[in-house]
Amino acid sequence: MTDCIFCKIVNHEIPSYKVYEDDNVYAFLDITQATKGHTLLIPKKHVTDIFEYDGDLAATVFACVPKVARALEKAFPEMEGLNIINNNKEMAYQSVFHSHIHLIPRYGKSDDFSIHFGNNQSQYSPEQMQEIAKKIEKQVIH
């Protein structure tokens, strides 16, 4: 894709701070650095989001996540945790439409990053939960 900033990074048309590269995957520092070491891991092949992955691409890309995660842990022993985030589509906060996985080191409760998961458990009965699960299960391709 010609207008994709991440494709341009992969093709070395735009500079980046590379932390890992192989034939299919490229990982580099996110320019925003939500926390020190904030890294993006992307497939070199342009895919917009997770919905465009096939099994082989998913296996290739996601197999690199632990490798880069361990590198972050070794590089920053003061790291207390790691968020791994993959946003898909604008509603889910995807802002660059080339699939990417954020690896965000966490150094303490006061670092400049947070996530909130609402608890809506009381809004669903066990029967509704079962209905939701069956609806999803029915759509999973085996």
What descriptive keywords fit this protein?
HIT-like_sf; five-stranded antiparallel beta sheet; alpha+beta; 142 residues; 5 strands; 3 helices; HIT family, subunit A; HIT-like; globular
Percent range of helical residues: 25-40%
List low-pLDDT spans: none
Overall pLDDT, averaged? 95
Widest sheet, order of strands: 1-2-3-5-4
User: Largest sheet, described in full?
Assistant: 5 strands, antiparallel
Tell me what the structure shows.
This protein is α+β, with helices and mostly antiparallel strands and 142 residues long. The protein has a single domain, classed as HIT family, subunit A (2-Layer Sandwich). Helix content is 29%, strand content 18%. The protein has helices at residues 5-10, 55-75, 126-139; strands at residues 18-21, 25-29, 39-43, 81-85, 101-106. Strands 1-2-3-5-4 form a five-stranded antiparallel sheet, covered by helices on one side. Strand 1 (18-21) and strand 2 form a beta hairpin. The radius of gyration is 17 Å and the shape is globular. The two termini are 31 Å apart.
